[in-house]
Amino acid sequence: MDRREKSQLLGGVGVNQQEGPPVKRNDCTFGDYLLPPPPERHQFAPSLCFCNALRQASRAVSRLYDAELRGVGLRSTQHSLLRQLSRSGEVRQRDLGRLASLDETTLTRNLRPLMKRGWVAVRPSQDRREKRFKITAAGVAKLEEARPAWERAQARMQALLPEGAGQGLLAILLEVVRLTAGA
After folding, report:
1. How many structural domains compose the chain?
2. Which of 1, 110, 129, 151 maximizes the CB count within 10 A of its CB?
3. What is the pTM of this model?
């Protein structure tokens, strides 16, 4: 079997074409070598699963907020915890996790950098097995520094939504959190 027959047998992929001009297939040639067709771009497929759709939306929105908050050295998760602590005052870890809808491990992981930077203080509770957290003066100052970035993220998000949909979306999401809190 000669080269041409091998080339035809193998579909021409990766076989050096010795005679004649390079063979074009799917407009993908490189020198004398045939290349496979370019990968097709995958189209966004909407999910019919509530969980998947909400998680995709959450990640997309987090990226938008993270992009704005990056300039002040915060991530959206950190900003959310600082805001929650500024509203609730000193709070037990279990209660903060419930308020933020975070499990204890995730909450601890997210609080660690805030404590390291001095934005959140921790002290033992009367029950030594529990910890109490509160925002510090430095944490309040960081929130104030982050306010313009957060407002830009809010404005960007609002601009992406259909006219008047923002308040309705917030109401629905808060209701979802409330209804699934005990699930």
Report:
1. 2
2. 110
3. 0.70
